[in-house]
Amino acid sequence: MAKNRMFNVAPTPSKKVPDRVPVKTLIASNKRARHDYAIDDVLEAGVVLTGTEVKALRAGRASLIDAYVAVDRGEAWLEAAHIAEYAQGTWTNHAPRRKRKLLLHRFEIDRLDQRIREKGYTIVPLSLYFLDGRVKVEIGVGRGKKEWDKRQALRERQDNLEAQRSMRYRELG
């Protein structure tokens, strides 16, 4: 006669999988945006794309020059961003400068809409990249800089570079 026994055995610890660092592959960046605007706030958003657009982005065929973000009827849109047509595409190819919907949470869209209603603020895309196989865009909310602000920023950057060079030569000599 076999007895039914309940064993209180602790579950075996599962093998810990090392925390994986997400792979971020840059496609295009808008260097001019940080020069022309004083960026106050930065967000990451997903982008709704078609198949040929993703293939063109994998080939690195994108430009964010003159691109901006607009909020229309509760949705955020990336406008005037250029994603070149896919070379092997056929009649299914996309329009290079079409509006592309951005994937953001409702409270983020409302906050962006509120900020751009203030005088002088605009939303500009800063970079476009792959994050674990998905296309993301980094957008910044900022005010346009005046001409003297731009000159002052350039002067400060040049001064910092010269100071670093002199420190480097001092350490060597």
UniProtKB/TrEMBL annotation:
GO terms for cellular component: cytosol. It comes from the Bacteria. HAMAP family: SmpB. Keywords: Cytoplasm, RNA-binding. It comes from Rarobacter incanus. GO terms for biological process: trans-translation; trans-translation-dependent protein tagging. PROSITE patterns: SSRP. Belongs to the SmpB family. It is found in: Cytoplasm. It holds the Pfam family SmpB. GO terms for molecular function: RNA binding. This is SsrA-binding protein. InterPro entries: SmpB, SsrA-bd_prot, SsrA-bd_prot_CS. Its main location: cytoplasm. Signal peptide: none annotated. Required for rescue of stalled ribosomes mediated by trans-translation. Binds to transfer-messenger RNA (tmRNA), required for stable association of tmRNA with ribosomes. tmRNA and SmpB together mimic tRNA shape, replacing the anticodon stem-loop with SmpB. tmRNA is encoded by the ssrA gene; the 2 termini fold to resemble tRNA(Ala) and it encodes a 'tag peptide', a short internal open reading frame. During trans-translation Ala-aminoacylated tmRNA acts like a tRNA, entering the A-site of stalled ribosomes, displacing the stalled mRNA.
